[in-house]
Amino acid sequence: DSQSLLFHLLKKRKEAQEMEKALAEKDEIRKMGGERIEVIADWWRDLHTKRTQLKAHVERSVRTVQEHEELIIQALKINSKQREEMMKKDGELLRAKMELETLRKKHRKLCKKVQKYSIFKKYLEDVVKVSQFKDISEVTSQYKLLMRTQKDLLQSQQEHKQLTEQDRVFLEQYKTEKETEMFQYKNELMQLKLRFDQALSGACPHAACALSFQEAHWADIQNRTSKKTGKLWTIKLAIHNLFQ
């Protein structure tokens, strides 16, 4: 019994030692777990802080990007506006260059005219010296008067030419009409001569009366013919004088 009791005590002692060891290990594990929990809590707090900082940094970055985009848009608008202004100024500059070139050409022409006019002015001054004119303005006034007179004369000649042409056409028409009329008179005269010859050769008791009538009619025709011919020659002479 004493031996079994000893074994039992040893066993209990061993169990107690194992229990103490297990409790020590638990305490160690608990202690290590607490430290690890503290480390994790610190890490979590640090992570939360970094997350907050990162969020703030992201928000600042977003605002910076938005501001940068707005600046880019404003810069593009300003650039576009400047480009339009530059194109407008380039167009105005090109037009100004073209106008300047045109003015230069006009200036060269005016310089040439001034040179010619200076020579002509010297000539007019010499004319004034050797003539009855008092100054150059009087010479130019006389020249303008002569030019107007020449223009009026040319216009009068043109009108006279037109009137002469109209008179010539009228004369031709009148000649044609009178020639036709004379031709009719000649035909009538031939018929009267024929009838006259028939009256002379016939044995009509009224031959003497018919003969006297034919002679009177013939004389009247000759008289009218001579009057028409004289009138025609008078018109020809008048037209000729007018043309001269």
Tell me the major beta sheet.
none
Strand content: under 5%
Overall average pLDDT: 77
Gyration radius (Cα, Å) is 71 Å
Structural class: mainly alpha
Total number of strands:
0
Distance from first to last alpha carbon: 193 Å
* SS summary, helix count: 3
Q: H/E order of the elements?
A: HHH
Task: Indicate the low-confidence ranges by residue numbers.
Answer: none
Percent helix, as a range, is over 70%
- Which word captures the global form? elongated
How would you concisely characterize the structure shown here?
With 244 residues, this protein is mostly helical. The chain has 3 helices and no strands.
Structural notes for this entry:
This protein is mostly helical and 244 residues long. Among the domains are: 69 residues; 31 residues. The chain has three helices and no strands. The radius of gyration is 71 Å and the shape is elongated.
What's the layout of helices and strands?
Blueprint: H1 2-129, H2 136-201, H3 207-243
Helix pairs in contact: 2-3
Write out key terms for the chains shown:
0% strand, 3 helices, 244 residues
